[in-house]
Automatic annotation (TrEMBL):
GO terms for cellular component: mitochondrial inner membrane peptidase complex. It comes from Lyophyllum shimeji (Hon-shimeji). This is Mitochondrial export protein Som1. Pfam families: Mitochondr_Som1.
Length: 99
């Protein structure tokens, strides 16, 4: 199902994640969790891209408003196979290049 305002057969999908903290200020620890909605644009033949920063999310009702120009904003994505780890040990990378 194509979403209104999206090119072709693109669709919008949401993942609701949570971040949690442990409050140890009281007599017993309490876990408090807060929702983090993440919104993605999924188009056939292209990498899925996160557009959370481009949309408006009402945290009370959960309603997501996708601005009409959200599809005009070029959001670059890469396939997972094209992603490399950036936090490698610099010494290990240097040794590998020397070989």
């Amino acid at each position: 199902m194509a979403s209104e305002g999206l090119p072709g057969k693109c669709r919008i999908s949401e993942i609701l994640q949570y971040t949690c903290d442990v409050d140890t200020s009281g007599p017993t620890p309490e876990v408090q969790c807060f929702p983090i909605p993440r919104i993605f644009r999924i188009c056939p033949g292209r990498p899925t891209v996160e557009i959370t920063k481009l949309v408006n999310v009402n945290m009370i009702t959960g309603e997501v408003e996708v601005p009409a120009d959200a599809c005009d904003v070029p959001v670059q994505g890469k396939p997972w196979r094209a992603i490399t780890r950036c936090n490698r040990d610099p010494e290990a990378v240097s040794n590998k290049q020397d070989q």
